[in-house]
Amino acid sequence: MYYRQFEIYMLLKTINFYKMNTIKGFLIFGLLTFSTVCFAGEGMWLPQLLKALNEDEMQTMGMKLTAEQIYSVNQGSLKDAIVHFGGFCTGEVISNEGLVLTNHHCGYGQIQSHSSLDNNYLKKGFWAMKKEDELENPGLFVRFIERIDDVSDIILKGVTDDMTPEEVQSVVDKNLAAYRSTIEVGAFQELIVRPFYNGNQYFAFMTVSYPDVRLVGAPPESIGKFGADTDNWVFPRHTGDFSLFRIYAGPNNEPAEYSPENKPFVPKYSLPVSLDGVEEGDFTMIFGFPGRTTQYLPSVAVEQVVDVLDPAKIEIRDVALKIMDKYMRADEKVRIQYASKFARIANYWKKWIGEKSGLERSNAVDKKRMLEEEFEAKVKADPALWGQYGHLMKKFNEHYSQIEKYAYTRDYYNEVVGRNVEVLSTASVIGRLISQYESGDEASYNAFKDRVVPYLERVFKNYNKDIDREVFVALADLYRDNVEEQFIPTAFNVKGKSLEGYITDIYDRSALKDKDQLMAILGESPEEAVKKLKDDPVFILYRDWKEIYDEKVSAPYNKTKAEIDLLQKRYMRGLIDVFPERTFWPDANSTMRVTYGKVNGYEPRDAVYYMPVTYLDGVVEKYVPGDYEFDLDQKLIDLYEKKDYGQYADNSGRVPVCFIGSNHTTGGNSGSPAIDASGNLIGLNFDRVWEGTMSDIYYDPSICRNIMVDIRYVLFVIDKYAGAAHLINEMNLVHPKK
Ligand code: ARG
Ligand code: GLU
């Protein structure tokens, strides 16, 4: 059934005749639109190309805006309300006083940093009742996009098909440096140049950042993180995943570092907020900064993800999470200490499980293989194409089989050494500190140490020796048993016997696990400190491990990866050349994108249909008093019981909480606005559904859905729950359906 729907989708999708020429950039040969039913959803499109590529389809799907209203170089447009929030999430401006809306999980670090046991804003929520109470966040910034230019001709000048990866890189680097030197970049501006279509095209983004961004409001976790890890990546969902910030600017509305004199920023554009919501079948659009997708991988690469890489990462995290969970359940203090760490590790663990099973269920590998067969047949039939794209699949197969053991070991190493065993992460930081010293520069040693000490303070604040030791033992055993012998540290070479004795011994003797011991060493003279650190038993293991990794894994991996990247660049160009009747979107790369679809339920399993909207009734249904994930605040229950919903209920008299749609999103789209057909804010993107998490690699329109929190729930919480009506008054509330 999935396959049939996919076929219909490919058939009915707007077909744009669109062809790429690597030298001249993009040329549009013509546009042709089917005005019949659309199942569109796939694609993360460039806002400046909507006019040429998507406007017709979007309007056919119900959009009432023009592409110019979404992205305009000359006048205020929707894009002027969209910010890259801290560089890792998206946010949107929703008032003329610089009020910014994003997810609770995007503001989590800030909310946590202002929290203490007495003032636990994570638990109780935070609301600034007047501007003076809004909280400063050092390091946080929001970034607007001022202008986007196609610079492909400049950056790719002199690049030819017969060059090696190193040659291409060196030409591109030179062109890039020359280009940068011609562009004037003001204070707080930054020129970001990124490759698109795997390096076939380049765009330059002139951006401006505002570094004074203050915390305005956040609901308690029982709303903002309701359902926590159990509900993460899952629908039906009932999370009010939002928080509010405000941009401040200098006297002339210009970007400025924090100062009490700064004033609320007046934006070029802010999003009107709709009280009318949307219904199944309505057009929706998501505007934001999706991080990374790999949609055009060859089948052999997807097979490797499904059979080799995802399973390895899942197993490692599974082991680590089980150990953490055991301790967290036994001790409340540990639970608090590990909540955020656990959530971070569990987030992608859970995503990979969903991704693997989604890729299998949707037969992604076979589908890709069929596309490749079609591609190869066309290439064979045309000598001009054959010259450029002949043997591509054969080369992919060879390279992917060559890289497999390195990619696998690399994932293993990154997960074990880089992520899940904290004392090894500490060893890695110490390793960098030692190299500062050994490069003969005491000043840079001291400067680095000044950054390392506060970093370690933060690590130790949430550190538990018993957990880390147990994870260390378990993951060392796993590594030794699952990674080829040539790649394992010398000390692990004890066949068939657990490393428990060895790891426990070095761990117990190491200073790296103990704050006081480690800080005492760092307090000594650089010479003394370095000498002691180099003799530390955990550090000795780490150094050996890293040396083997760098030489035997990382180096051959990088070499083959560079060749694969070049093949991928060629394949991408080939797809565009060979299938001129299809439209291809460039993989996400943390640049601004628009994705659009419709409010739409789906069938997760045989005979089950998920309706697209959840309600406050469902929040109360999930309520488990005292539970760490599903507890509720009495105030919310009271509002529910009194049906005190104000203007935030829908026609059925209920408050909508979350809804889903066929918008193609990924990590980084958190906090992105969901926008209706007329350009009004209707919700906030924050997740994807379990069955569709493979959409980073393969988008299946029948089951890939994004999850948004309904803006009326956000407003209800701000107004009725928090009593912060002054924030509502700042917004421009509209009734597009009346
Ligand atoms: N899955 C969402 C995303 O990828 C939400 C993650 C935050 N929530 C959590 N329970 N870890 O970022
Ligand atoms: N929660 C994700 C984020 O933080 C968005 C969900 C997704 O990956 O689609 O960006």
Sequence-ordered SSE layout with sheet pairings:
Blueprint: H1 2-12, E1 15-21, E2 25-32, H2 50-53, H3 55-60, H4 67-70, E3 82-85, E4 89-93, E5 99-102, H5 104-113, H6 121-124, E6 126-127, E7 142-150, H7 152-155, H8 165-182, E8 189-196, E9 201-210, E10 212-218, H9 221-224, H10 228-231, E11 243-249, E12 263-264, E13 273-274, E14 283-288, H11 299-330, H12 332-361, H13 364-381, H14 383-389, H15 392-420, H16 422-438, H17 442-461, H18 465-482, H19 500-509, H20 515-522, H21 526-534, H22 537-578, E15 593-598, E16 602-605, E17 608-610, E18 613-615, H23 616-622, H24 634-642, E19 656-661, E20 673-675, E21 681-688, E22 706-710, H25 711-721, H26 725-730, E23 733-734
Parallel strand pairs: 13-23
Antiparallel strand pairs: 1-2, 3-4, 3-7, 4-5, 5-11, 6-10, 7-9, 8-9, 10-11, 11-12, 14-15, 14-20, 16-17, 18-19, 19-22, 20-21, 21-22
Helix pairs in contact: 11-12, 11-13, 11-15, 11-18, 13-14, 15-16, 15-18, 15-22, 16-17, 16-22, 18-19
The protein binds arginine and glutamic acid.
Q: In words, what does this structure look like?
A:
α11 packs antiparallel against α12. Mean pLDDT is 93; it is low at 1-39. The strands form 5 sheets. Strands 3, 4, 5, 6, 7, 8, 9, 10, 11 and 12 form a 10-stranded antiparallel β-sheet that branches. A 7-stranded antiparallel β-sheet has the order 15-14-20-21-22-19-18. A two-stranded antiparallel sheet has the order 1-2. With 738 residues, it is α+β, with helices and mostly antiparallel strands. Glutamic acid (GLU) is lined by residues 665-670, 686-688.
